[in-house]
Amino acid sequence: MPRWLLPVLVVYIVMSVITAGAYIYDKRCAKLGRRRIPEATLFGCCLLGGWPGGFVAGRMIRHKTRKASYRVVFALIVALHLAAWGVVAWSLIQKSID
Q: How many CB atoms lie within 10 A of CB 59?
């Protein structure tokens, strides 16, 4: 296992917890009619590795599941992360073959 992998996974876990908390807080604010967390902030958390937490929290509390424009941007963020991990995996496989 590459040395850099553990710190990256820790970032994903920490950002997922932060993002899930942000989703939960934003949902609560929406219900109470309070000021909400800007979507750009939620997207930023997802982009920085928190998309798994955003996905799980969004499904559990049914938050940001109906707004099509949000779902499209979220899906693009997930696709970006999966593509990046695909490139990393391909690189590691090629390195092990050589």
A: 12
